[in-house]
Amino acid sequence: MPVKIPSTLPARAILEQENVFVMGEERAEHQDIRSLNVAILNLMPTKVATETQLLRLLGNSSLQVDITLLHTATYESKNTDADHLLNHYFTFDEVKDQKFDGLIVTGAPVEQLAFEQVDYWKELTNIIDWAETNVESSFYICWGAQAALYHLYGVPKYPLPDKMFGVFEHRNLAPKEKLMRGFDDAFMAPHSRHTEIRRKDIDKVPDLSILSESDEAGVYIVGAKDGRHLFITGHSEYDPRTLKGEYDRDVSKGLSINVPKNYYPNNDPSKEPQVRWRGHANLLFANWLNYYVYQVTPFDRNQIPAKDPSNNF
Question: Which of 88, 142, 191, 246 is catalytic?
Fold first, then answer.
């Protein structure tokens, strides 16, 4: 089934060209099914690129998904056309009285700041707290994952001596867990960050489980044991050329940046990047939508977050 996308959203034309199944609002209204309502809090400056990446993955499942795009009210994006935000995005105040089956919180290029120094930190923590009673399952990405782990569980982040930048091999530590069903024992995923969370801090929190990690990139997937919070420290949603774009941007600015590891053939940036994470990216989002949203969310959204307490990982 498709993801429902307004006809004016730039992502729609891109996804249709890729034969991703998308549906307009008029056709969706005639579908006699209960679609999933997923909110995306897009904290990235490249909003159109990020929403396209996420919608591509959400659209590759058997479920119909209605999307609500959110942006912060306390920080004005300097990289996104104001009309795009006005026509396609909502603020938290405009949706706070609604219930959602799922919430995705993206990364943001603010990881080298202390959490409390981020302009929209109070607004973000209000949204994380609101999700406890208004969202069935939340999916946090990169800095969004670090922020939620810090706010909900006090898990700190640490600066890295060099940017974690490239595509790294990860181990599936919990093949019987719903999120990891179908994952290979070892799989690849991209990272692009200056900070990290550490196993020793996660292990101190009884409510959290590490589902995947990498010898080089560290902790990758963390889940709350009730399934209502998932934390992904990398960027499985990245397009084939996203890391290239970041690398070329920094090189053009004269910044010190290493070639992203395991990305270009023979680590040669003159060659076209190799995609080795697409299959697991699709599986990650499909498993989340199926097992943590669709299978457990009440038919009546007003009952969220009511659920069977025995329905854990």
Answer: 142
pTM of the model: 0.88
71 burial type by CB count under 10 A (0-12 exposed, 13-18 middle, 19+ buried): buried
Q: Measured at the alpha carbon of residue 212, what is the angle toward residues 243 and 136, in degrees to the nearest 5?
A: 90
- Cβ atoms of residues 64 and 28 within 8 Å: yes
- Give 248-265 pLDDT, tens digit per residue: 999 999 988 999 999 999
235 counts as catalytic: yes
Instruction: Please pick, among 71, 235, 246, 280, the residue that the annotation labels catalytic.
Output: 235
> What gap in Å lies between CA 113 and CA 124, rounded to an integer?
15
What would the pLDDT profile of 188-223 be if each residue is shown by its tens digit? 999 999 999 999 999 999 999 999 999 999 999 999
Catalytic residue, from 111, 123, 213, 237: name it. Answer: 237
Query: In the annotation, is 142 catalytic?
Result: yes
Report whether 123 contacts 91 (CB < 8 A). no
The second-level CATH assignment, the architecture, of 3-238+277-303 is 3-Layer(aba) Sandwich (3.40)
Minimal CA–CA distance to 173: which of 219, 117, 237, 109?
Answer: 219
The residue extents of the domains of the chain are 3-238+277-303, 241-274
25 catalytic? Reply is no
Q: How far apart are CA 15 and CA 22, in angstroms?
A: 7
